[in-house]
Amino acid sequence: MVMSVEQTVEMAQRPTETKLPKPAIELRGRLLDRAPFLVACLMLALIVGIYGSLQSGVFSLDELNLDTAAAMTLMLAATGQTIVLLRGGIDLSIGGMIGLGTVIAATRFTDDASTTALWALIILALGFSIGALNGLLISLLRLQPFLVTLATWSILNGVAMIILPTDGGSIPSWWVGFASAQLLGLTSPVWMLLALLLLWWWFRATRVGIAIQATGSNEKSAFLSGVSIARVNLVTYGLSGLFAAGAALFLVTQTGAGSPTIGKDYILPSVAAAVIGGVSLFGGRGHLAGTLIGAFVLTLIGNLVFVLHVSSYWQPVASGVILLLSVLASSVAEKAARNRVQ
Amino acid sequence: MSGELFESACMDLVTVNGLSKRYGGIVALSEATFSARAGEVHALLGENGAGKSTFIQILSGAVRHDGGSILVDGQDYRPANPDAAQARGIAAVFQELSLIPDLSVEQNIWFRHEPRTWLGTVNRTEMRRKTLALLEKYSFPALRPDQELRRLTLAERQIVEIAKGLAKDPRILILDEATSALPAREAEWLLKLTRQLASEGRLVIFISHRMAEVRAIADRLTIFRNGSTVAAHEANAVSDNEIVTQMIGRHLDRLYPERVSTATDRIALGVKGFSSGSRLSGVDFALREGEVLGVGGLQGHGQRELFQALFGATRASGSIELWGKPVSIGNPRQALTGKDGIALVPEDRRGQGLLLTKSVRENLTLSVIKRFTENGLLSRQKEAALVKEMVDFLRIKAGTPEQLAGTLSGGNQQKVIFGKMLLTQARVLLLYDPTRGVDVGTKGEIFQLMRDLAARGYAILFHSSDMPELVHVADRVLVVRNGRIAATLEGDHISEEEILRAAMLETRAA
């Protein structure tokens, strides 16, 4: 049977039938997408498992309270870092901001609650402003975020040392007590953790959150869609600075003093926590839940090294190995996902 | 509303006078003029590099003009950014696409205009409803609103980009080569849609290199050349020949070179039982020395997979013989190895073929750097000589070999990729849609080049999404359907009708 051209052409013009991919394949794709996050969960489960078999009382509310408190400074810093990574950038200056924050707190906080609260707000505002300045410099000078934030880190570090050359100062006891305050059996850090997740869930669904992710995913497309890249940078780095300041305010509840150089201990771990949790260094992909799990992993490695009674220098070794493993996991998953798509 | 629309349809919606734009020393637009009415489809024609892209970038707010004036509704128009353009009712469907890979289809469509809840978060139910309504209203081809964009093919992304443009309910919609990435059926749909939009009282500025499309839908057309307007016509008052002559500034005798078969009996590439994934199953064919072998069929039936698998970019099973010797190709490096290897001109030249931020020279010599090394050191003279030879041979229009590839026009970028491929000394060439988004003049040059290479003993496997190209350039045409070769057409049997028939046969049976 021969068809006329008209018939043939008409065939060609028929609307495409709905071709939905098979659910099984879709599920596999979704799992592959979340592979780095799932690997992080697995690691955490493994570490908690080993830890729990060596130490009694690990599976308790007390342990949760303790570990969350130990991880919270890193979690706060890593939350800011996650936003920046999502944008496709990096923020090294949080090291300087954390140090500066603790130093201001240790020299200005008093027993007078209102004065202290005012200074806490000032520190937060300073964090946002300095972060926003980072964003502004990156947009205006068209410089690499790595270089700009490296420079501001150094500057902030210097300022912190001018204010307080050595560790010291004092933090009022009522502020210190905040970290152990309890509600319904959970201490404040656990509540903060929940609040962070809630805040993230909200933030990621707002237009600003989507614009930040989109800019990290493809800056040119975002610009063509009408996103102001300068504004995105301002908000992204501003938030990172704000969370770094928050990390400083929490940190002083544990140290009870200011320390101008303490911030450097959080720069790379904040990136590592995010990467372990599946946040892409190239922007556009990742969730805070992963970062928080990554922060737990890094914190609990310390506990594990302690109960294994080996030299504490094994902790950075273990952290490094875990970081490599998760990067490997995500690259394998990425490859598998790419092959699927062709 | 209708009275107002009717009135505005009679006066010009957009009037452009003396529009100029420079990038450094390069003049992209000089004294361009343009005017278009509401309710019409206005085609914008010109070779690549004629200034069309710059013009629409200015209209859509992506770049700002240096001189001249634009009036929209009789009021001055100088958008500071794409947002400002949208606020005035102007939306563009970009050829390079403005989509975000990590967002879903619907998030992309409504990006920055998402419906919100009282919490300021995206109202997903409302967004889904609006998406389905939009897709339904303009009878879009099937799309899954929740699918992530990076999982879509180029054609599907193009369709999402169109939906995104329409989501803004623009008064002026700019379609920049929107049909070039679409298969025949979807391209046809877009043409109908374009007419529908015009009949709704919108102005559609339509850019395409396919004359038949322009003919089918344009009311009026404006022709650009070298950054200036050379003519504006009522579409039915001008012939194809006149248009082409005005576009290229000289008379083009013919687009397609004479087809003189230079094929020998020697088989350059013999493929048997070739399968890859679910898209390619048991393909057999033989490509001969000196032959241009076309690959046609409806889009999405395995053409892309065939090319990628032959090049070693995706995994495949089956046997391949290259110049009579069995080979296994695991990755592009193996395919390229040796003097008589395989080289590919990929579909997405900006993404896969070309490093936009590198110079013409670097792009040409990147994959053949070994050829200029002596005792481990790079010989600059050798390199320069070969680069010059290639630039001259292909007539690449670049200021110097150091000009960045990203600043060249589309046709010249494609020539650089050809040069890169030729320098590998491969003699089996896989050309996947090499004329996509390339202007008429350069198209002719590319076809001539293909015939010249065939005459020199190269073997060329050639796919084009524009069917007349296959019909006029290929010695034989393989028609692919559902991952198999459905027919091999030769001689007088090569026609659009026969290709379509072979491509559709099974669909009819089903």
Automatic annotation (TrEMBL), chain A:
Pfam families recorded: BPD_transp_2 (PF02653)
GO terms assigned for molecular function: transmembrane transporter activity
Localisation: Cell membrane
GO cellular component terms listed in the entry, alphabetical order: plasma membrane
Membrane topology: Multi-pass membrane protein
Alphabetic keyword roster: Cell membrane, Membrane, Transmembrane, Transmembrane helix
Coiled coil ranges: none
Membrane spanning residue stretches: 35-54, 66-85, 92-110, 116-138, 145-164, 184-203, 234-254, 266-283, 288-307, 313-333
CDD domains per UniProt: TM_PBP1_transp_AraH_like
Principal place of residence: membrane
Name of the molecule in the record: ABC transporter permease
From TrEMBL, chain B:
Cross-referenced InterPro entries: AAA+_ATPase, ABC_carbohydrate_import_ATPase, ABC_transporter-like_ATP-bd, ABC_transporter-like_CS, P-loop_NTPase
CDD domains associated with the record: ABC_Carb_Monos_I, ABC_Carb_Monos_II
Domain spans labelled ABC transporter: 14-251, 255-507
Keywords, in A-Z order: ATP-binding, Cell membrane, Membrane, Nucleotide-binding, Repeat, Sugar transport, Translocase, Transport
SMART domains: AAA
SUPFAM superfamilies listed in its UniProt record: P-loop containing nucleoside triphosphate hydrolases (SSF52540)
Protein name stated in the entry: Sugar ABC transporter ATP-binding protein
Natural source organism: Mesorhizobium intechi
